[in-house]
Design a protein that fits this description.
single chain, mainly alpha, binds tryptophanyl-5'AMP
Length: 341
Amino acid sequence: MIAAVPSSFMTRVLSGIQPTGDIHLGNFLGALRQWAIDQHLHDSFYCAVDLHAVTVQQDPVELRSKTLETMATLVSVGLDPEVCTLFVQSHVPYHTELSWLLECTVSFGELRRMTQFKDKSAKQGDGGQEHVSAGLFTYPALMAADILIYDADRVPVGDDQRQHLELTRDVAERFNSRYGQTFVLPEAAIPKIAARVMDLQEPTNKMSKSSESPMGTVGIFEDTNSIAKKFKRAITDSENQVRFDFDAKPGVSNLLSILGAATDRDPASLADEYDQYGPLKNDTAEAIIDALEPVQNRRAELLADPAELDRIIARGAEKASEVAAITVQRAKDAMGFLPGG
Ligand code: TYM
């Protein structure tokens, strides 16, 4: 039994996941699983960031169903709605209000240097930036708002979000020095193992929802046979020597990281236990299948009870709004907006 600690003495945590595509092993090991493990230690807020999803065009029917599925996934990975606040970002409109204040604090140059914007706009072709949405460009200001609005001390994310966290701190510091102490400076909490899970077919690229190699990406709700097959066919190298060395052996090191994260072991020492790739692939598949089994079972139960999910979402919006409203008002007062209204 874990003793209840008053939330005012706890570290505040916030993180989010986009409700697009299929949630994969990178999301699970780099983020969701860490959220669930640490939930009792912090006063935690976790959300499906649907406002971020629409920075690229979404089908409305699909966005709605993916948002529901993402909320079901948060509960399925073990986040307890009695312990943490689980909500949908667009249900708390204060995020967009604070985002505007932060868009007026961040500089054009800072946004232009964000690698996510450069990568995503390059993928659009046609000279890229001409056709991407302005929302994709200002995305980091909304993400900073998501974090700062909850006075978050810690933001548990995978390694790919590091630059966004640095910008969030810069924006918070700038705001505080211009207008007086308003925002808490958040720290990124990046896991030691599996902070960047790589594609099983192209192990020099990170596993990603938008990947073009379905055999390289493992969805957390995939069936057991399909997961086993993907690990069996994972790309390694021709050396046939198990060593943890991401530069020289990205495929093997990725398997060791995944196995290490799933079994809570150090990937380098796991390497000493294998002298062939086959058993390493089998054990990694088995460890992942075991880790995902309770998640898959819980999700099936939850999707069978939509009323329960609706209740969780409504309660989360209420709890998150209470905190967010106070921070936005503090920021508006600091900037000199006329009280009232
Ligand atoms: P998103 O939806 O791309 O990913 C959700 C979480 O999964 C992590 N992740 C990975 N970790 C390890 N290996 C991988 N291959 C991998 N792929 C994804 C991500 O680092 C992330 O933690 N911008 C964010 C969403 C966001 C957010 C926020 C996060 C919006 N507002 C505020 C934290 C705080 C994103 O697109 O995550």
